[in-house]
Amino acid sequence: MEWLHNTQTGNSKWWSWWVGLVVILVFYVILGSIPMVIGAMMGLVNIDESGSILGGSANPVQFALVMISPIMLFVGVWVAQRLVHRRTLTQLTSTAKFRWPLVWQSMVIWLGLGVFFTVVESLIYPGRYTWTFDAGAWIMIAPLVLLLIPIQATGEELMFRGYLMQAVARLWAQPVFLVLLSGVAFMAPHLANPEMGSALGGEIPMALNYFLVGVGTAVLSLRDNGTERAIGMHVVNNLYAGIVVGYEGSVLGTPTIVQTSVIDAWLGVVTIIIAFVVLIVWPLPKRVTQEG
Asked: What φ, ψ does residue 53 adopt, rounded to 5°?
């Protein structure tokens, strides 16, 4: 777990972590919310009384405004890492250089599993999936999804599997504790997603979906001694939901090729566990093992 201890260099004084956290929250919560609030005031983003976004982000302008906040999370982590801790972003992801082969491997495996599970579900439950491809709408938003989703997903991994786990590991590097902490920390902000109130099975299994993703990516990162495969699977997972298979009431709500009429939370729990087991036990690329 050498990657967890990349904090030995640069500034790791106790106060630096609090300053870094404040910097990240300022970028993510405050600066990232301003454009969406302005957009809501101008009628570009629909927000209900609880502050939740209605109707997803089905048009390019709304999608771009909604994505500014998670992109600012990426920026905030970068600023905290570079200016507060005087370390590189790579030190949040790897022990040495960033290992791109791990990213590509996890993206291919996770995409393959996603397609497989979609096909199986459509065969078990005929009628759940509908062909909804609208070339005009899809082409308008797909480039934005392909550009912004990788930044959003990478930012979350840098925060939850990189910054948070490295910070806590300075106090207690117990693997089980770090894995559970990752699960809870990743689940918490996703509890505001509209899927929580509409998923088949209820809120508990839907929350468990998010918790298991946080657990799985943490186990994967500890196993790999870095976050590259966690980043890869997270990016392709969100891209798949953003342009391939969507759900009308999802947090994204972007035009997709296929849409499902229901999010089956308990089925999601099963598929997430299977997918992470496959990814965790899958051998690393020979090039990476030889370099390591």
From this structure: -80, 130
Three-state DSSP at 142 gives helix
- The pair phi, psi for residue 200, each rounded to 5°, is -70, 125
Is 219 within 8 Å of 279 (Cβ atoms)? Answer: no
Pairwise CA distance, residues 20 & 163, whole Å = 9
Nearest to 209 by CA among 194, 222, 196: 196
Q: Are 106 and 229 in contact (CB under 8 A)?
A: yes
Q: How far apart are CA 229 and CA 100, in angstroms?
A: 9
Q: Which residues contact 108 (CB under 8 A, 6 or more apart)?
A: none
The rounded distance, in Å, linking the Cα atoms of 205 and 167 is 29
Alpha helices, H only, 240-284: 265-281
* Phi, psi of 36, deg, nearest 5: -70, -35
Global model pTM greater than 0.90: yes
Tokens of 143: 């480039």
pLDDT in tens, 14-63: 999 999 999 999 999 999 989 888 887 887 776 554 344 544 456 788 88
